[in-house]
Specification:
Structural class of chain A: alpha+beta
Largest interface: A-B, 30 and 33 residues
Order of helices and strands of chain B: EHEEEEHEE
Oligomer: heterodimer
Helix content of chain A: 40-55%
Number of strands of chain B: 7
Strand order of the largest sheet of chain B: 1-5-4-3-2
Largest sheet of chain A: 2 strands, antiparallel
Strand order of the largest sheet of chain A: 1-2
Radius of gyration of chain A: 12 Å
Distance between the termini of chain B: 71 Å
Number of helices of chain B: 2
Shape of chain B: elongated
Shape of chain A: flat
Number of strands of chain A: 2
Strand content of chain B: 25-35%
Distance between the termini of chain A: 16 Å
Largest sheet of chain B: 5 strands, antiparallel
Amino acid sequence: MNARIIVTTTGQVTILVDEAVDYAAAARASQAIMEALGQALNVEIVIAPPEQHRHGPEYEHQLAHATAQAHSH
Amino acid sequence: MTCTALSFQTATLPLPSVMSLVSQADHDQIAQALAEYAHQALGATTTKYPDRVFVTTSAGTASISWDAQNVYVRSYAPALADQIRSLAVQFFTAQAAALLQQKVAAWAVANTAFAGYEVTGAGALVLKVSL
């Protein structure tokens, strides 16, 4: 499946899976990517459910912009 | 003999853990970039060392130093403390994010079916991959 890894200037990493048919598989794949990234970069990656994400307006603005661009392609 | 006591305010700022990946070469670049940033933002005169930059304005002098975990702001003029602390937060947040973008991009190229990237108008790096 195609995906986009978004890294904002506020330092947050988001994985946006395009046109996921199997949401459970998409969730597993994106979590595996996050964990691999954390190990490779030796940084702690905290994976929280979407409803617990609190990144602030700048992050939300950048994510919305990136999401809109992804959907327009 | 005359002794002069210097007063100062200190703030310790936690850095994103990605800063622990900063190499010595990166530190040299950080010192240079921070000195330029302070000069442009405040019109300050700066003196840089590998892990420390002194910033002097008409209000006084402050120093900004850093290690793998923290940024340390020491202002010898109380009026300058908040200004320098704000400048340090802005600078190091941007540095950490830029470094994170570089590291994640290098990882994506090496570990996924990488299909390109783009930078949005808001500055976010978007890496196109196949999982």
